[in-house]
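Title: Request for sanity check on Large ribosomal subunit protein eL6 prediction

Description:
We are preparing a figure and want to confirm that the structure record we downloaded matches what your pipeline produces today. Could someone re-run it with the sequence below and paste the raw structure tokens into this thread? We only need the token string, no images.
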Amino acid sequence: MARNSTVNGVAKYSRSKMYSRRAQHKRAKPVTKVEAKKAAFVTTKKVGGEKNGGERKVVARREPKFYPTLSLRKKLVGHGQKTFSAHKHTLRSSIVPGSVLILLTGAARGKRVVFLKQLESGLLLVTGPYKVNGVPIRRAIANQVIATSAVVDISKVAIPEHINDAYFKRNKAAKKTEEGIFEKTQEKYTASEQRKADQKSIDAALLAPIAATPYMKGYLQAQFGLSRGQYPHNIKF
């Protein structure tokens, strides 16, 4: 048996290190699954002596004293926790239909968009409009936008019912086969005719109230930034 010296009460080798030094993995007796099933958890052992009862129940399978260094991670099931889709999504009081938001992430970060409605997933449905600043109909995360005091009247904007979370899902790319680099590259994304028609109808309804509000079109076209060279912030809507 290998010796394990101690210094100031601290052992030189850990329990897992001593497990390997003593070759405990070689001394373990292999037990098949069938034998392990048949083995009882408690066995009866005979005890000598008149006052000892003659027999005693002993645990047959004990917990191991030494454990391997690597442990398998188990998935913890939270008590009373819900998935993100089951959460109740509420909006900030500053975000109302028609609010002008500033996107902070994504390809259109720094752009100002008009908020249309909230989808079932909790994401925000927004648009530039596309004819004003080039931002098409897209989704945005509520905690990744800045809500401004500017509001556009969207009471006459009819949003089609088919524009939902499934509307923005794209087809998954096909897996590569043995041909590898000789395969054709995936085609670039292009908007469908349905999406183009929806964009035109929403843009047409938004352009009228935007044109009726002074400075609103220029405000939507201006890129957001923290320098003084940006669009003036002292304009009141």
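Thanks, this matches our download. The beta strands are 6-7, 10-11, 42-46, 55-59, 99-103, 112-118, 124-127, 138-140, 145-151.
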